[in-house]
Write a structure and sequence with these properties.
Layout: E1 3-9, E2 12-17, E3 22-26, H1 27-32, E4 62-66, E5 69-73, E6 79-83, H2 84-90, E7 117-119, H3 120-125, H4 127-140, E8 142-146, H5 154-159, E9 174-176, E10 192-195, E11 207-215, E12 218-219, E13 222-226, H6 227-237, H7 239-247, E14 250-256, E15 259-265, E16 268-270, E17 276-279, H8 296-310, E18 316-319, E19 326-330, E20 334-338, E21 341-342, E22 348-355, H9 357-368
Parallel strand pairs: 7-8
Antiparallel strand pairs: 1-2, 2-3, 4-5, 5-6, 8-19, 9-22, 10-20, 11-19, 11-22, 12-21, 13-18, 13-20, 14-15, 16-17
The structure holds N-oxalylglycine and zinc ion (2 copies).
Length: 377
C-alpha cells in the first residue's frame, strides 16, 4: 500500500492510499511527530521537540506527496518528511488499526502433548535457541528447558540469557525446599493450589523459572494451567461471573517478619482493547474481600466458578519434574501448583527466579527485529 495524495481539510490532512482507503492526520499531530534531527535526538531516539512548543492551530505552509513520501513545510520554514510506511504504521484512522497478531494460543491439557520444550544446550549455544524458547513462552505461556546441569545457580544464568533478574524479599535466587522455619507455604511440604507468584505486589513478576536439582521425595508432582484459556471458558459459560472478576478489585497481602506488602487488582484484568492482560490469583495470599455488600455473594460465586475451572483436570497439565528440568512460565497468564510431598521420604530441591515482563518482551523484540528503531523518513 502506498500513499498517493492528500486533501486539505480544516485542522488536518486527509491522506489517500493506493487501496482506496483514506486516513486523517491532524496538523498538530504531524508537526509533533517530526522525526528530523532537530526534533529527535539522532542516536538516543528520544524526543527533543517539546509538545508545548507546537501551536494547537498550526497549519502547513505547503504539503505534498511525492514518491511515496509526504513532505510538509511549516510557516517558520521547518520541513518535515514522513514515509508512507511510517504513516501507515502509525495511522489512527479506525480502518488502519492493525489486527493484533494472534501471538497467544490458549490451551487445555491435551493440547500440550508433548509440552513446548527446548534443550538447555540450544539456549546457551546462541540466539536461535533463545528465540525459539521465548516464542514458545509468548505463544503458550509455558516452556520446559530440558537437560540443564543440576549445579545450584544454573537457573539464574539461564534466565539472564533473557535479561537481568527481578528481585524481591525472597532474593534474586530462592530455594524451594521444605524448611523447619518457612516464610512461604512454598517452603513447606503442603499442597499448593494453582496460583500466580507475588500477587501481593503491585507488579507480578512476568516470567518465572523453577529448576529441579534433586527430587527423591514421594509426591510433589507439579501442575500448570492456562489462566487465559480458563478465563475465556468462564466468559463463554458464565458471562456474569466473568464480568464480576474483570471489574472487582481483589486484595492480597503477604506478611513475614521482614516484609508486609499488599496489592489489589481484579483476578482477570483486561487491557484497553478488552483482551486478557493479567491473571492474578493465589488462594494462600487472599486478603479479606471488600466490595459492595450487595455484591459479596456474587463475588464469591464468581470466584468459585473461575477457581473450579483452574483446578479442573481438563485444563490442568500434570507432570513430575526431573532433575535437570526447568519449568518456565508466564506468571501473568499461567498458574502453577504442586501436590503435597513427604519430606521424610527423600529430598526435593528446586531453585527459582524471575524476570519482569517488560524485559522478556524487550528481548523478544530485539531478537525479532534486525531493524533499528524505525524512522518516518
Ligand atoms: C513456588 C512454588 C512449586 C513447587 O515456589 O512459587 O509454587 O513445585 N513452588 O514447589
Ligand atoms: Zn523536525
Ligand atoms: Zn509459586
Amino acid at each position: 500500500v502506498t500513499i498517493i495524495d492528500i486533501d486539505r481539510e480544516p485542522g488536518l490532512l486527509r491522506t489517500r492510499w493506493s487501496d482506496g482507503r483514506t486516513a486523517r492526520f491532524h496538523h498538530v499531530w504531524l508537526r509533533d511527530n517530526c522525526w528530523c534531527t532537530a526534533c529527535r535526538h539522532p542516536s538516543i531516539h528520544e524526543r527533543t521537540l517539546d509538545t508545548l512548543a507546537v501551536s494547537l492551530d498550526i497549519q502547513p505552509a505547503a504539503a505534498s506527496v511525492d514518491g511515496g513520501l509526504l513532505r510538509i513545510e511549516w510557516p517558520d520554514g521547518h520541513r518535515s518528511e514522513y514515509s508512507g510506511e511510517w504513516l501507515e504504521e502509525h495511522a489512527y484512522e479506525p480502518g488502519f488499526a492493525r489486527p493484533r497478531p494472534a501471538d497467544r494460543t490458549p490451551w487445555r491439557s491435551t493440547d500440550l502433548e508433548p509440552p513446548p520444550e527446548v534443550g538447555y544446550g540450544e539456549i546457551v549455544a546462541g540466539d536461535e535457541g533463545l528465540l525459539r524458547w521465548l516464542r514458545q513462552l509468548r505463544e503458550f505461556g509455558v516452556s520446559f528447558v530440558r537437560g540443564a546441569p543440576t549445579e545450584p545457580g544454573t537457573v539464574t544464568a539461564l534466565a539472564e540469557r533473557i535479561a537481568f533478574l527481578r528481585n524481591s524479599n525472597f532474593g534474586l535466587l530462592w530455594d524451594v525446599v521444605s524448611k523447619p522455619v518457612a516464610d512461604s507455604l512454598a517452603y513447606t511440604s503442603v499442597p499448593l493450589t494453582p496460583h500466580t507468584d507475588l500477587v501481593s505486589r503491585s507488579t507480578q513478576p512476568g516470567l518465572q523459572f523453577l529448576h529441579c536439582l534433586v527430587f527423591e521425595a514421594v509426591g510433589g508432582d507439579s501442575t500448570l494451567v492456562d489462566g487465559m484459556a480458563c478465563a475465556e471458558e468462564l466468559g463463554r459459560r458464565d458471562p456474569a461471573a466473568f464480568e464480576v472478576l474483570t471489574t472487582t478489585p481483589v486484595p492480597y497481602r503477604y506478611r513475614s517478619p521482614d516484609c508486609d506488602v499488599t496489592a489489589t487488582s481484579p483476578m482477570i484484568r483486561l487491557d484497553h482493547r478488552g483482551e486478557l492482560d493479567e491473571i492474578r490469583y493465589s488462594n494462600a495470599l487472599l486478603a479479606p474481600l471488600w466490595c459492595d455488600p450487595d455484591r459479596m455473594p456474587e463475588l464469591y460465586r464468581a470466584m468459585h466458578a473461575f477457581v473450579s475451572l483452574l483446578r479442573s483436570p481438563e485444563f490442568t497439565l500434570r507432570f513430575r519434574l526431573r532433575p535437570g528440568d526447568v519449568m518456565c512460565f508466564d506468571n501473568h497468564r499461567v498458574l502453577h501448583g504442586r501436590d503435597a510431598f513427604d519430606p521424610q521420604s527423600g529430598p526435593r530441591h528446586l531453585q527459582g527466579c524471575y524476570v519482569d515482563r517488560d524485559d522478556f518482551l524487550s528481548r523478544l523484540r530485539l531478537l525479532e527485529s534486525a531493524r533499528p528503531v524505525p524512522s518516518p523518513a
